[in-house]
C-alpha cells in the first residue's frame, strides 16, 4: 500500500528487545486492588475466591501462551516465566508484558461471574505489568525467593493485623502494635492471643502463594488394531503449593522446569540486594515530550471472524472500541486525546504528564489493562446478541514525540492509514460480494490508485461518489476528547446555560489544522479552562 508523507513518525518508535540469554519474567499486579477489594467486599486478610480467580487467570495465561512455563502468584500479583531462549514476539518487552496483562485482565473479567455469582463487578478492574530480566537461572531463583518471602511477610503481617482488628482494635492501634515486630514475634502473637498456629492453621494458598506450571502427561490418542494404546505427550497446566518454590528439591522435581529453564544447583535462602535493584529497574520516558500509547488488538483478524463482525466495518464493534476509549479518558485525566480505527487506539498524554512518574511499562500496562477490562465488561451492551467466545486481548507500546507538529503528523499518519485501509477493504469486500474470489479481488486491486478505487466503487454500487456516502466513522476513524457541553438549566430566574465537561467521540478530519484551531484546549493547557 502507498506510503504517506507522515510515515517518518515511525522512526520515533524505540526498540526494546530483551537480549539473549536473559530469562524473561512478566509480573502483573492489581492497580489499587485495595480499593477494589473493599468495594467488592473481599474477605480479610485473604479472600479464597479472589485468589482462586487470580489462579484461574494464571492458568489461562499458561494455556494460551506455550512459551510460558511457570508462574507464581499471591495476593494481587502474578509472575510469569518464559522458557529460556524464547522467541515470543521476538522478545520485545512492551509487546510481551502488555499483551499478557491485557489477556489476564480480560480473563479476570470474563471469569468473575463463575467465582462470584452473587457479586456484580462494580467497576472495571485493571492491573499493571512489567518485564524483569534475569541474566541467569540463579538470578531467577533469587527472584522467586524474594517474591515468596514477600508473600510470607505480607500474609503473616496481615493475619495479625486483621485478627487484632476483629478483636476490637482500630486499624491504627493494630498497626502501632505491630510496628517493628519480627517474624517470630508475630508468630507468637498469633499463637498467644488467637490460638493460631501459623504453619498449621493458615491454609497453604495464603501462606505460600500458588504456582502454576506445565507438566508433561501422556494422552492416549487411539488404540492400534492389536489393542495397544498410542500415546502422545501433552503439556498440562497444574496448580501446586510449596513451602519453598526456589528450592532445588521443588524445582528439580518438575521435569518441565528443568528442561526449559535449567536446574537450580544450590539452595538459596536470601536474595542479594544487588539482585533486588535489577528487579526494580524501570524505564522512564523522556520529559516534556508527548507520550502516545498505542494499543492494537491481538489476532483480531481471527477474533472478528469468530464473532462474525460485519465486513469491512462493524459499527457495533467500533462503537464498543470507542466507548472503551472514552472510559480510558475518564480514568486517566492526563490523556487529552485519543484516535481509533479498526482494532487500534492511540492515546495522547499531555506533554508535562507525571503519570506513574513517566515509567513506560506502568503507563502502557495500566492503559491497556483498563481498556481490555472495559472491552470485556461492555461487550454485552454493544453486542447483545453475541456471546463472547474467548477473551480478546491487546498489545501496547509507548512512543514519545518531541513537538506538537510531530505529534500531529503521527495522528495524521494514523488517519491516512485509516483512509487507505478502509478504501481498499471496501473495494475488496464489494468485489467479493459481486462474485469474485478473495484472491481474484486481491489481484484486481493490486497497484490501483485511490481514484481508480473510487471509480470501481461507483461502478459496482451504481452510486456516484459512493465512497463519500459511507459513514464518517468508517472513513475518518474516531477522535475522543473532553469538550464543553452547555446545558440549559431550568431555574427560577429563567433558563441559564450551564456548562460541564464531558468526553465526546467525534469523526472528524484531524489532518487539517482547522480541527486543532477549533479545539485549541486539547493540546494547549493555556486554552483549557474546563479540564481538571
Ligand atoms: P495482530 O495485530 O498482528 O495480532 O493481527 P490482527 O489480526 O489483529 O490484524 P491487524 O491488527 O493488522 O488488523 C486488524 C484486523 O482486525 C483487520 O484486518 C480485520 O481483520 C479485523 N477487524 C478490525 N475491525 C473490524 C471490523 O469492524 N470488521 C471486521 N470484519 N474486521 C475487523
Ligand atoms: Mg491487531
TrEMBL record:
InterPro entries, sorted: Thg1_C_dom (IPR025845), tRNAHis_GuaTrfase_cat (IPR024956), tRNAHis_GuaTrfase_Thg1 (IPR007537), tRNAHis_GuaTrfase_Thg1_sf (IPR038469)
Catalytic activity entry: a 5'-end ribonucleotide-tRNA(His) + GTP + ATP + H2O = a 5'-end phospho-guanosine-ribonucleotide-tRNA(His) + AMP + 2 diphosphate + H(+)
EC nos: 2.7.7.79
Nucleus keyword on record: yes
Domain of life: Eukaryota
Biological-process GO terms, alphabetical: tRNA modification
Location in or out of the cell: Nucleus, Nucleoplasm
GO molecular function list: GTP binding; magnesium ion binding; tRNA guanylyltransferase activity
Similarity-based family: Belongs to the tRNA(His) guanylyltransferase family.
Protein name, entry field: tRNA(His) guanylyltransferase
Species in which this protein is naturally found: Sesamum alatum
Amino acid at each position: 500500500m502507498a506510503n504517506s508523507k507522515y510515515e517518518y513518525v515511525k522512526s520515533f518508535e524505540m526498540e526494546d528487545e530483551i537480549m539473549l540469554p536473559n530469562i524473561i519474567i512478566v509480573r502483573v499486579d492489581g492497580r489499587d486492588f485495595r480499593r477494589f477489594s473493599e468495594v467488592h467486599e473481599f474477605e480479610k486478610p485473604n479472600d479464597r475466591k479472589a485468589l482462586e480467580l487470580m489462579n484461574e487467570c494464571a492458568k489461562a495465561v499458561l494455556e494460551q501462551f506455550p512459551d510460558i512455563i511457570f508462574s507464581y502468584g499471591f495476593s494481587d500479583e502474578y509472575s510469569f516465566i518464559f522458557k529460556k531462549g524464547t522467541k515470543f514476539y521476538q522478545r520485545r518487552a512492551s509487546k510481551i508484558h502488555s499483551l499478557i496483562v491485557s489477556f489476564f485482565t480480560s480473563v479476570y473479567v470474563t471469569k468473575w461471574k463463575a467465582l462470584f455469582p452473587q457479586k456484580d463487578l462494580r467497576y472495571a478492574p485493571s492491573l499493571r505489568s512489567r518485564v524483569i530480566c534475569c541474566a541467569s537461572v540463579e538470578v531467577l531463583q533469587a527472584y522467586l525467593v524474594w517474591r515468596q518471602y514477600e508473600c510470607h511477610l505480607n500474609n503473616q503481617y496481615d493475619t495479625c493485623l486483621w485478627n487484632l482488628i476483629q478483636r476490637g482494635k482500630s486499624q491504627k492501634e493494630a498497626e502501632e502494635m505491630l510496628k517493628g515486630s519480627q517474624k517470630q514475634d508475630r508468630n507468637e502473637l498469633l499463637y498467644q492471643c488467637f490460638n493460631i498456629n501459623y504453619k498449621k492453621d493458615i491454609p497453604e494458598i495464603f501462606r505460600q502463594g500458588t504456582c502454576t506450571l506445565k507438566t508433561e502427561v501422556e494422552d492416549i490418542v487411539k488404540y492400534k488394531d492389536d489393542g495397544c494404546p498410542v500415546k502422545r505427550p501433552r503439556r498440562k497446566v497444574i496448580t501446586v503449593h510449596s513451602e519453598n518454590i526456589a528450592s532445588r528439591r521443588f524445582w528439580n522435581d518438575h521435569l518441565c522446569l528443568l528442561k526449559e529453564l535449567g536446574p537450580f544447583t544450590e539452595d538459596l535462602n536470601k536474595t542479594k540486594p544487588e539482585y533486588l535493584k535489577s528487579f526494580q529497574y524501570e524505564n522512564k520516558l523522556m520529559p516534556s515530550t508527548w507520550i502516545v500509547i498505542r494499543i492494537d488488538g491481538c489476532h483480531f483478524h481471527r477474533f472478528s471472524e469468530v464473532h462474525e463482525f460485519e465486513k469491512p466495518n462493524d459499527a457495533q464493534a467500533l462503537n464498543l472500541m470507542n466507548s472503551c476509549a472514552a472510559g480510558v479518558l475518564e480514568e486517566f485525566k492526563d490523556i487529552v486525546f485519543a484516535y481509533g480505527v479498526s482494532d487500534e487506539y492511540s492515546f495522547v498524554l499531555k506533554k508535562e504528564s507525571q503519570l506513574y512518574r513517566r515509567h513506560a511499562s506502568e503507563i502502557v500496562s495500566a492503559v491497556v489493562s483498563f481498556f481490555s477490562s472495559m472491552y470485556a465488561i461492555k461487550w454485552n451492551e454493544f453486542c447483545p446478541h453475541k456471546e463472547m467466545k474467548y477473551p480478546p486481548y491487546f498489545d501496547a507500546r509507548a512512543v514519545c514525540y518531541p513537538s506538537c507538529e510531530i505529534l500531529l503528523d503521527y495522528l495524521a499518519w494514523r488517519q491516512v492509514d485509516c483512509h487507505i485501509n478502509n478504501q481498499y477493504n471496501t473495494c475488496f469486500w464489494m468485489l467479493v460480494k459481486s462474485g469474485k474470489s478473495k484472491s481474484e479481488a486481491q489481484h484486481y486491486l493490486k497497484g490501483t490508485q485511490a481514484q481508480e478505487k473510487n471509480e470501481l466503487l461507483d461502478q459496482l454500487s451504481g452510486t456516484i461518489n459512493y465512497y463519500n456516502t459511507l459513514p464518517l466513522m468508517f472513513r475518518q476513524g474516531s477522535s475522543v476528547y473532553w469538550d464543553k457541553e452547555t446545558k440549559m438549566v431550568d431555574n427560577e430566574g429563567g433558563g441559564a446555560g450551564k456548562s460541564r465537561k464531558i468526553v465526546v467521540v467525534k469523526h472528524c478530519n484531524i489532518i487539517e489544522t482547522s480541527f486543532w484551531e477549533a479545539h485549541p484546549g486539547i493540546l494547549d493547557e493555556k486554552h483549557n479552562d474546563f479540564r481538571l
